[in-house]
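Sorry, I am new here, but would you mind making up a protein's amino acid sequence and the tokens describing how it folds?
***
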Amino acid sequence: MSPRTRLIVLSISTPLLLFVLVGGLLGARIQPEPTTEQSLRVFEDVVSLIVHNYVEDANVDKVMDGAMRGLADGLDADSAYLQPAQVRAVESGERLPDGDVGLDLTRQYYLRVIAAREGSPAARAGLLPGDFVRAIDGKPTRDLSVYEGMRMLRGAPGSKVSVLVIRGNAADPHVIDLVREKPKPLAVSGRMVNGNVGYVRIPAFDATTVDALRRQVAELAAAGAAKLILDVRQTSEGPLDSGLAAAGLFVPPGTTIAMRAGRGQEKAPVVSEGGAPITMPAVVLINLGTSGAAELFAAALSGAERAKTIGEHTNGRAGLQKLVKLPQGSGLWLTYATYTTSRGDAIHEKGLTPAIEVEEAEVEFGKVADPAAADPVIEKALATLGA
């Protein structure tokens, strides 16, 4: 089937499939609008034309598979069409191989790097947020979902995976071979900077983050910290609720720190829980690699006017996904709810704009930023805190 024919089928089939899925998934009794009825008729005509007039015998199953992929591709980056084998893997709780390269991906025409996990093979290779991954082991990512791409990067520790990466100039691609390794736990860390300012690095959010963050702040306070820099740049790991739980350390109990809603639902406030909050003046450092739980953490502190955000625009990932089974064993990995800021501003697919924008220093491709070099974002944070 020619690319032109495939494009026609995808564009026409999307309204049909969207209508069927919305009706089936949400159980709503929706009367089709005239435009929907017209689309259904056109879809039937196109399928008939393909079956009876295409130069070769068309594989209708393949055509429909492409249509389903096209539908998911028109949604957010985290939604995906799953083939039957993938659905079985999700339902069975199949464990992924232990080896990983430390990349978190999103989708923007091709797969694109959200962040490289601290200390991972990808981070050591110098991959940065915004880099495009055009191919994985020679397979173009144009037709890969985030779900598929993330799984292709996994494998046995010690095995290799090749990625074709583009940064800035599409005419200058780079092939990088990464050796998979078993990820090591990431811990909250801290140090004193410039007198009475404590710097806290949060590389990931998980069930241990709240206690670890509380202990780290207490240690810095004991060392003389009166102000805090909270760094969640290139932090994209962890369930969304762990970022909200960590934000609860810094705002009074009962404070609205986010809103959550699904299709057809009223936005429900999410309020902070816990005891006495940490009251030291603080700022939060963010960038394009700030995603998911880290975005909710930053948005919560900013929305409560507890801390200013400093740095670059964030990724925009604040949705919850679930598996929805379809006929013949296939399925959708579908975003069914999203979080917004406490004011109701969208985060998912939009990201956060920092209160104070500061560009990070550029790093040559394949190089790793020198930790001893001046960091313009931290310098701006110190100036903002009056240090």
